[in-house]
Amino acid sequence: MAAALAGIATVVAGGTAAQADKGDGNAACNRTEICFQFSWDNFTTSSFQRHFWYNDSDHSNDIWGNVPDGNTSLWVANTAGGLWNRDSSCAVTVYDLSGYRTPYTVFPRDFKAAISARNNSHKRCA
Amino acid sequence: MKRGHTTAGCLAAVVALLLPVTGCSQPAAGPPADLAAAESDQPFSLFLGDELGQIDYAQMKVRNKCLAEAGYPQNLNVMLGQPRNPFRHLRITEASFGPTSEAEATRIGFGRDSLPAPSAVVSFDPSYDRAYDRCTDTAWRALFKDGKQLYYNYFDLGNKLSEPLMPMVNDRMDPASWRGLLSCLVGKGHRPKDEAAFLKAPTPALFDVPVGTDAGAGENAWQPKGVPGTIEVGPAVPAREYRAGPAESRVALAWFQCRRDTGVARQQVEIAVQVQRELVAKHESSFIELNPQITQLAKQSVKLIGAA
Fold it and tell me: Could you name the domain of life of the organism this protein comes from (chain A) (predicted)?
């Protein structure tokens, strides 16, 4: 994946300060986190992921984490390829637009799958 | 499959929740899917979102009681007091496309009110993680041995309705309608920053007003201590009433008036009904297969948590 990303890397610029919620801060998607992945591989790798414990109304100010050397990260908005909902209480709704507008897909608890790259916000127990 | 036998078996499994559970067999069939709903003005009413919420709630409650018995009461303590339909947005109305009155447009702008949500339960304890897996399996088997797959299959069906809906509605709108909406908005002093983009897919994001500001700074700023071997509980998420700022209110009011006055609001709802019918027809076999099972499983879920 790193090689593939190197060719399309985009310099992260603009946007606003990213929110503090980044899950437990570890590279792997751990129990109780809501995990987005740039390139869907069933979460067998841990690079280019972004984790949360709560909602986020704007993915355009979040960048992918655990970026391998030689790559530049991208904004999370509209670039996610997979989602693993490990939240222990809630289904997670992913929205096409920021601000929780236009619900797009709903992920049940304990479920992971590929998603279309249409994600601008997400909410628990929406 | 005998309905009475199945229910009794499930309830017995609940009573013996902490004992090895052999699993409930397939739920007896509920009533067949009422495909007449597809001809109504709410074709997606064929989707049993409330029943799905009931199943989710029952499984989670049984799981949480199992976790509490294992020494982890946190999930049981924070869970919502009642089921919640995870696909409420499939009830398509005029409100699905924006505010429905001048007063609402002025108050809420382009934002959304939010329901309360439970605290995040955060694990730094491998023992909790193992108990979570065991209790999750126990709860599903108490409900119905293949209930988890049925539950996931029904989420998948909901998403097959949800994901294409709005793009299909947008694609089928008469371009003249979008041009009329644009002309109306410009006439009221609101010009989008990209008219071509607006005419392709009108969105309030094309106006320079803040939309969808998140009021969740409290929980998003929360940081657990992260001590290995511990479980931490974050702040609960309260219900929130969105209040638009002055600029957002002005644009949203014009947006509502122009959607109403140009007929866009009516067209969107009419097209949405047709799109819903097509999507229901496309997935008719899934409704026929899954709806009776979901109906019956939801009934078993009510009995399950009533007995637990």
Answer: Bacteria
SS3 category, B233? strand
Q: Which residues of B55-85 are buried (b: 16+ CB within 10 A; e: fewer)?
A: bbbbbbbbbbbbbeebebebbbebbbeebbb
- Backbone φ and ψ for A118, nearest 5 degrees, come out as -130, 80
Query: At A63, which CATH number?
Result: 2.60.20.10
pLDDT band at B224 (very low <50, low <70, confident <90, very high): very high
- Euclidean distance between CA atoms A101 and A106, whole angstroms: 13
> What are the pLDDT digits (tens) for B24-68?
555 667 788 888 888 899 999 999 999 999 999 999 999 999 999
List chain A residues with CB under 8 Å of B132. Answer: 31, 88
Bridge partners (DSSP) of residue A34 are A52, A85
| C-beta separation of B56 from B86 below 8 A | yes
Which residues are CB-neighbours of A70 under 8 A, at least 6 positions away? A2, A6
B203: left (phi over 0), alpha (psi -120 to 50) or beta: beta
Domain of A117?
21-126
Specify whether the CB–CB gap between B303 and B38 falls below 8 A.
no
Q: Which of B114, B118, B224 sits opposite A89 (nearest CB)?
A: B118
Asked whether residue A73 is assigned to any structural domain, the reply reads: yes
Domain count, chain A: 1
Backbone angles phi, psi at B233, to 5 degrees: -115, 125
- Domain-located, residue A34: yes
Amino acid of residue B8:
A
Q: Distance (Å, rounded) from C-alpha B266 to C-alpha B260? A: 7
The top-scoring range by mean pLDDT among A16-20, B12-16, B127-131 is B127-131
Beta carbons of B60 and A93 less than 8 Å apart: no
A contact residues 88-107, partner B, Cβ 8 Å cutoff: 88-91, 93, 96-107
In-domain check, residue A13: no
**Cβ neighbourhood burial of A40 (10 Å; 0-12, 13-18, 19+):** middle
A47 inside domain: yes
